[in-house]
Structures are given as C-alpha cells and as structure tokens.
Amino acid sequence: MAFVGLGANLGEPQRQVQQAFRELDAIAHTRVVRTSSLYRSEPLGFADQPRFVNAVAQVETGLPAGRLLAELQAVEARHGRSRSFANAPRTLDLDLLIFGNERIAAQDLVVPHPRMHERAFVLRPLLEIAPGLETYRPFLEACAGQKVERIG
Ligand code: ADP
Ligand code: MG
Fold first, then answer.
1. Is the pLDDT of residue 16 over 70?
2. Mind listing the pLDDT tens digit for each residue in 47-94?
3. Is residue 108 in contact with ligand 1, taking CB distance under 6 Å?
4. Please, what are the domains in the chain?
5. CB 89 within 8 A of CB 11
6. Which residue minimizes the CA distance to atom 19 of ligand 1?
C-alpha cells in the first residue's frame, strides 16, 4: 500500500489533479483505492506563483517503489511538466510519500518523502484518508501557520 501526493498550480489545476487520479489507476499492476478531497494551498518557498491544488491518493501496487516512481514521472511528463527549479510552478507534481513500511534512501528516491512532515498540504489530505497514519498528526499540528483549505 502506497500513498502518492499530487500538486498542480498551472493550467487547470483541479482538472489536472482529477485526471491524474485516473492515470494513477491506469498504471500497470496498480489501482487507486482511495482519494482525498482537493485542497488549495499557498505556495511554499518561491511565493510569486499561483496557489496550488493538492491531494493524496492511496494506491495498491505490485510494482517495486523505483518502478512506481518511474511511472509517476511518466504521468508528470504527459501533463507537460518541465523541470525548472525547486518549488517552481508546475502543471503536475507527483511525489511518492509512503511505500508500505519501506525506508529507501537512494539517490533518486527517498521514502518516506523527506519533506512531507513539514507540509500541511500533504499531511491534511493524507490524514483525511489514512486513519492508520495518526502518528503523523503532531507534524500537521506543527504546520499551523500554513494555509490549506479544503475545496471539495
Ligand atoms: P519537488 O517535488 O520536491 O518540488 P521535483 O518533483 O522536481 O521536486 O523532484 C523530483 C526529484 O526528486 C526526482 O528527480 C526524484 O528522483 C526525486 N525524488 C526523491 N524522492 C522522491 C519521492 N519520494 N517522490 C518523488 N520524487 C522523489
Ligand atoms: Mg516532486
């Protein structure tokens, strides 16, 4: 069981995220078992850009983590994502947040995602759909200053 974080702030962000849910479900050996509500968040880091739409999907997959990441990057690429700089605006960002109980520290893949603990836009949707992850709640409470609103 894995959790994927979705974010978009260019084009039609809500549509990109909804479409990405379907594309995650279409990945081989993978199905989406639960999706969070959509949330709107203020950009972190580089502030001079549109607000984000964020969500989290719970997926069941037979793929190893590295293969799943490659599939996520293929979905990003289809959405016209171009990598410019960290925290830059993007049509679609897919992050592998959690992959079962695995801890991975490879050059191109770190799981659990190293910055999820400090991001309300990840933790709020995650806790909405994953009651088993209540251990993350104190991290969400520590993000109290970050603006994240549920938009449906
Ligand atoms: P960010 O999402 O932090 O703004 P990017 O999406 O551009 O930045 O970063 C993608 C890079 O992060 C990729 O090269 C990927 O290999 C690496 N990466 C490491 N761990 C993860 C993970 N858990 N999920 C997604 N990408 C990851
Ligand atoms: Mg990313």
1. yes
2. 888 999 999 999 999 999 999 999 999 999 988 876 666 777 778 999
3. yes
4. 2-150 (3.30.70.560)
5. no
6. 109
Task: Supply the pTM of this predicted model.
Answer: 0.94
Cα separation values, 108 from 23, 27, 91, 103, 135, Å = 22, 20, 21, 13, 26
Residue of minimum CA distance from atom 21 in ligand 1: 109
Does 108 participate in catalysis according to the annotation?
Answer: no
* The predicted structure's pLDDT at residue 83: 65
Distance of CA 43 to the CA centre of its chain: 14
Q: What atom in ligand 1 is closest to the CA of residue 113?
A: 23
Q: pLDDT tens digit string along 102-140?
A: 999 999 999 999 999 999 999 999 999 999 999 999 999
Q: Which ligand is nearest to the CA of 72?
A: 1
Q: Kindly report the protein residue whose alpha carbon is nearest to atom 20 of ligand 1.
A: 109
CA nearest neighbour of 36 among 133, 147, 107, 110: 133
What separation in Å is there between the alpha carbon of 93 and the centre of ligand 2? 5
Q: Of 7, 120, 117, give the one whose Cα is nearest residue 57.
A: 7
